[in-house]
Write a structure and sequence with these properties.
The chain is mainly alpha-helical. The chain has helices at 7-15, 21-28, 30-41, 69-87, 90-110, 132-154, 158-177, 186-216; strands at 45-48, 58-62.
Amino acid sequence: MFIGHWAPALAVAARCKRPGLGTLFIAAQLVDWAFFLFVLLGVEKMRLNPAISAVSPLDLYSMPYTHSLVGALAWSAGFAVLVWLMLRDGTAGLLAGAVVLSHWLLDLLVHVPDLTIAGGSSKLGFGLWNYPAIEMPLELAITFGALWLYVRARQPLLGRALVLGALMLALQLFNWFGPVAPEVTPGTSFLAFVAYGLVTLAGWWMGKSAAQSSQAH
């Protein structure tokens, strides 16, 4: 799952003003930010194998610190504390932590078995990546359904919402149908950072217009 990870951030932001949408977008992909950093550092491992599943060529064969359930809970708790310290708002911290944890739960739906409970040899994953007729419309539906909920509730500037939606759709289509590199290089991580950064910036930009609109009323 790629853009679908931002759906929980949009859904939470549709109901709650704190934390901000930019913070929630970081939360939604926090474990992947960490994963691609750890790949650069050689701490976690991945390789590209187009035969691993019908949708994704990612063979994520070692990621105990980011994509184990225990690891995801640790990232979730750490981010929750950070948001609480920054905002002095316990509810905002809990919401941010829940969005971090949602990443692992959504990955459980789509990944072929490569997730773990605590980094052991037993691997989990329901494997919807092998069923593109289910996974692809599901990912689009939860993402743009959540975006619609956010726009309806927060009424950001429509142009900014359209930019965010178009950017997410373009990146998802590239993720599904773009060329597959022959091997993992440092550029693999940097490409992920650019994609996550652009969407997070667009989400923050849209959220800023919603906050301004709310204040104006």
